[in-house]
Every structure is written in structure tokens, then in C-alpha cells.
Design a protein that fits this description.
single chain, alpha/beta, five-stranded parallel beta sheet
Length: 564
């Protein structure tokens, strides 16, 4: 039997991770009256990917929405540029924690293992990195907020150990460690004639790192198979396009709620208009940044079919794309780095060429942050890991006319999926209301999404009346349907992004996905308003979810009165 809301509030909640998702989840639970909330992080300060030791000059926010904040704390204007940078994001996370979470965070505590306690609750084995001791912490409930960008993925043939075995003399590091090694690189640049850096990969981190080094005069080569798509414009787009539902409507969602969406994605004319729009957006983005027809930068992922997209705005004179156009950053693509050569100073590429480098930076992405903290038995019992698509997944079909001519994809059997309902609760655990996830939902407006999901989690823990599956079997079936949608909508992307950052992929369509969560809680949706003509262009802001706690409390009271 579910405990009363007051009893639940007295029970302990452990939040793993002190990045954006962990911070807003803790704040939301505390605002809802939870008395014993504790965050654990192995870092020395808050912020996750924006933590103080991970940021560096030139690091910038790359989301298409163009901003990041929670409703309870406005984001100050950017310090040194039009776009939010690493220092802006770091300072914001630190101020949020200082303002709302004083005394609630344990730093330098590394989670080693999470398992169910006997009877109920959770046991977490941790290591205190300062005192070098291990201990067991016990919580009634857990929220996993470790995200998908905390555990670097390093190909075995390119890691430091492989470099050492072949006698490679230079520095080898992952992009996540770049800030720590930047001073050494700049010192080596001054001391070593013809000093050069090889960057493996061409995602956003690779681009920021390459541009920063090139601005210091370092010789940089970037090798990649495909780079990220990007949005760019001759002039800054107004908020009615960038910060409204406009792009989400043009992108499609698993459910098409409105007549406009159904026209755009299920009629012959609408499908033509939709794909022409995205083709134009891609063409104009290349043109805005003056990308030559023969540039390797055109070997990029699709704006429409992918989730690897950055927002470049009007571009910068000393930005990555401009520096590539000027020849200050050398591009080698399509190719991939294979191994270190025996001469101790080069890397062999898949095209047979060898690139000499004094330093190799592996911008090779991240692996799941969940793998090492759950035993195989616990992961299986929770249903948190990836698995083969369900047998009935083929029955789900989305014959949208806007989906004509999709890119080729790997066999369905290779695109493994997770059964995580709404991207928040493992389907097998749906009835227990003692475990949730925030921060694994891949979208372009993390601030808004993390906050709505935090409220959903709080209602879920409190036992509020919600729209939920009636059983683990139903939750698994619904999660399987969503997984089938992700494979249909974003071919290949499940092979690229790890499971701790792909519990759901609602990249462009985040407003529709957040509406679904609000509906689950019985709250109003499409909050930006507007009439039949203006609603697609109304700007979405965090202010519209500022009173979710009060709205949920009022609904909870109403539901209790109905019962009595």
C-alpha cells in the first residue's frame, strides 16, 4: 500500500549527480516538502558538464533553443558574447545551488554500486574521494541524474595505454579532460617547433576545442567521418521562430495533436512543404557560414533525421567554421583514426594516410554513466539496460508523408532500446514509485524539460493521481512503442547516443513531449497561448511553468476532496 504524502515527505531521497537535472530535481522535491533530500556528486563543485573544472574559454551552449535556465532563477545576460558560454553556465549552476540547496550536496562522493535494500529502499556503496574510505548510504527513493556526458568513451586502439605501447610520445586525452591539459598544450606550443594537435571527432566539443587552439596559433587537424549539422542565419532569427513551437511542429512527433501538424505530416502537400522547409534550412545554413561546396563540413548529419545539431546563429569571425574556411583548421574527412604508428609521432587513418601530432584529443563521445554503478542483476531487475526491440514493435507504423526517403539504417536487431516509460521510470518498476531518472531525455531545451520532469517525478513519488500505466506490462508495451518511434524518426541515432542519454529522443519536438508529461499530471498544456493563427509562434519561456507546484497542490487537494 502506498504511504501517505506526509509519510513520503519524511522519507529520504538520494539524487545521484549534481548537474542541471540533479539540481532542479532536488529543488523541486524540497519545495514540495520533502524533508530529507541529498545530492551526491564525485565532483568538487556543481554543474555536471558545466562544472568549474570542465569549462574552458570558447566553450559555448549549443542548443537550438538558445537559452538555459529554470523558472526560479533568471539567467543573466552572457558575459562575453551573444551566446551563453561555459563560464555563464557554470556560474548559473553554482548560484542556483548556493541559493536553493545549501547543505544538501555531498561533494567528492563517487557512487560505486546501487542495489535494492532488503525489504525496501536502496543501498548505495560510495567512496569518499577525500578521505579514501568506502561506506554504504541508504535511501528510501533514488533519482538517477548522472546524464550521458560524464563517462568518456575512449576507443581501445586510441587510448593512452595504446599510445604508450606503440611509443607515442605526446599527450593523449579525452575532450572531457581538455580544460585540465590546456595550459600544458599552450606551453608545448611555445616550446616545440611546428607543434600540432590532432582532434579525433567533429562534434561540438571538438569544434570548440579546435577553434580555441587555432586562435592561439596552434596547428590543428580534425579527422572525422561525419560532423554535426548546424543552424545558421545571415541575421539572428527572432524568438518567434527559435523559441516557439514552430520548429517542433515542422519536425513531427509521435502523436499529431493539431490540424496543422496532421496537415504537415500526413498529406501529400504538407509532406512536400515540410521537407522543402528543412532542405531550405540546411542550404541556407551552409550559405550563411560560406561553407564551400567541396568542404568536408558538408559531410554532416541531417537536420531533419538526426539529433546531432548545433546552433551557430550568424556565426563568429573567429568561430570554428570561419577558421576552417580560412585554412587555419585542417579537416580530413571522411576518415577515422585507426591506431598509433610505430614511429612514435603519428596516427594512422582509415584512408591509409598518417598524421603527425604532438597531442591527440579524443572527442569520441561518452559511454553510459549507468553501466558501472549497477550490477547486472540489479540492472535486469530494474529494466534499465538496453535490449533487443520487442517482438510486437513492428505493429507500430508512422506513415507520415514527411518521412519519405529516409536515410539507410542498420538492421532493426542492432538498434537496441531501453524500456523506460516517458524516459523517466523503468517500466518494470512503474508500480513501486521509488526510482526515477532525470537528465537522460535528449532534447534541445534541457532547462524547461528537466524542470517539468522534476515535477512529474515529485508527483510520482508522492502518489498523486496521474495518468500512468496500470501495470509493468503495459508500461513496457508503451515504452516499446516509443522505442519503435525513435528508430523510425531518428534512424541510426540510437547507435550513436548511449542509453543514459537516450531514454527518450524528443529533439525538436520537446514542447509536445512536455505537454504529455503535463497531461500526465492533469495540468494545462500548450501554455504559451495564442489563437488559431498565432499559437505556433508564441515564445515558450520558463515563466509559464513557474507555478507548477501550486497547480499540482491544488489538483491534489481537489482529488482528495473527490475521494472523500
Amino acid at each position: 500500500m502506498m504511504a501517505s504524502p506526509d509519510a513520503v515527505r519524511r522519507q529520504s531521497v538520494g539524487i545521484i549527480g549534481a548537474g542541471a537535472a540533479g539540481l532542479v530535481t532536488a529543488h523541486t522535491l524540497l519545495q514540495d516538502g520533502f524533508e530529507n533530500v541529498q545530492l551526491l556528486t564525485r565532483d568538487k563543485s556543481v554543474g555536471g558538464v558545466w562544472e568549474r573544472q570542465r569549462i574552458y574559454p570558447g566553450l559555448s551552449l549549443n542548443n537550438v533553443y538558445g537559452e538555459f535556465c529554470f523558472s526560479s532563477l533568471p539567467m543573466p545576460p552572457p558575459q562575453n558574447q551573444k551566446r551563453l558560454g561555459g563560464e555563464d553556465m557554470c556560474s548559473y549552476m553554482e548560484k542556483f545551488a548556493d541559493t536553493f540547496l545549501a547543505g544538501k550536496i555531498q561533494f567528492e562522493i563517487e557512487v560505486l554500486n546501487i542495489r535494492r535494500a532488503i525489504g525496501s529502499g536502496w543501498e548505495i556503496q560510495v567512496q569518499d574521494l577525500r578521505r579514501k574510505v568506502k561506506k554504504i548510504l541508504v535511501y528510501d527513493r533514488i533519482v538517477l541524474c548522472t546524464g550521458g556526458c560524464s563517462e568518456p568513451f575512449i576507443p581501445e586502439s586510441l587510448g593512452p595505454d595504446a599510445a604508450a605501447k606503440t611509443g607515442f610520445h605526446g599527450l593523449v586525452c579525452h575532450s572531457a579532460e581538455f580544460a585540465r591539459h590546456l595550459d600544458r598544450m599552450l606551453e608545448d606550443h611555445k616550446a616545440i617547433p611546428d607543434y600540432s594537435v590532432l582532434v579525433v571527432g567533429c562534434g561540438k566539443s571538438a569544434q570548440d576545442i579546435s577553434a580555441l587552439l587555432a586562435r592561439f596559433g596552434v596547428k590543428v587537424t580534425v579527422v572525422f567521418e561525419k560532423t554535426d549539422a548546424f543552424l545558421a542565419y545571415p541575421i539572428e532569427l527572432p524568438a518567434i521562430f527559435r523559441k516557439s513551437r514552430f520548429l517542433s511542429i515542422m519536425a513531427s512527433h509521435i502523436e499529431l495533436r493539431t490540424k496543422l501538424e496532421r496537415f504537415l505530416h500526413t498529406t501529400w502537400l504538407g509532406g512536400k512543404i515540410t521537407r522543402a522547409f528543412w532542405d531550405f534550412l540546411s542550404w541556407s545554413s551552409y550559405k550563411s557560414l560560406n561553407i564551400p561546396q567541396n568542404s568536408p563540413l558538408r559531410n554532416s548529419h541531417s537536420l531533419f533525421w538526426g539529433i546531432r545539431t548545433n546552433e551557430e546563429g550568424a556565426g563568429k569571425k573567429d568561430g570554428f567554421h570561419a577558421l576552417c574556411n580560412e585554412g587555419k583548421i585542417k579537416l580530413v574527412a571522411p576518415a577515422r583514426a585507426v591506431k598509433y604508428t610505430d614511429d612514435g609521432e603519428s596516427v594512422l587513418l582509415s584512408n591509409g594516410t598518417e598524421i603527425k601530432a604532438n597531442t591527440v584529443i579524443l572527442a569520441t563521445g561518452f559511454k553510459s554513466s549507468w553501466t558501472n554503478i549497477f550490477t547486472r542483476e540489479t540492472a535486469k531487475e530494474l529494466g534499465i539496460g538496453r535490449h533487443l526491440p520487442l517482438a510486437d514493435a513492428e505493429e507500430h507504423v508512422w506513415d507520415y508523408t514527411s518521412f519519405s526517403n529516409p536515410p539507410t539504417s542498420h538492421p532493426r536487431s542492432e538498434e537496441w532500446v531501453s524500456s523506460i516509460y516517458r524516459g523517466i521510470v523503468p517500466a518494470r518498476n512503474i508500480n513501486r514509485r521509488d526510482f526515477a531518472i532525470n537528465g537522460a531525455f535528449f532534447t534541445v531545451n534541457n532547462g524547461y524539460a528537466f524542470e517539468v520532469m522534476a515535477h512529474w517525478i515529485s508527483s510520482y513519488f508522492l502518489g498523486d493521481k496521474m495518468r500512468l500505466p496500470s501495470s509493468p506490462e503495459e508500461a513496457t508495451k508503451l515504452a516499446g512503442r516509443n522505442a519503435a518511434w525513435m528508430r523510425r524518426r531518428f534512424p541510426e541515432m540510437l547507435l550513436w547516443v548511449n542509453e543514459s542519454y537516450s531514454s527518450d529522443l524528443a529533439f525538436w519536438s520537446w514542447p509536445q513531449a512536455m505537454d504529455e508529461l503535463l497531461e500526465d499530471m492533469g495540468l494545462p498544456i500548450m501554455r504559451s497561448g495564442g489563437n488559431w493563427l498565432t499559437w505556433p509562434f508564441k515564445v515558450i519561456t520558463p515563466a509559464e511553468i513557474k507555478n507548477l507546484r501550486e497547480e499540482r497542490r491544488a489538483k491534489r487537494q481537489m482529488d482528495m476532496e473527490v475521494v472523500h
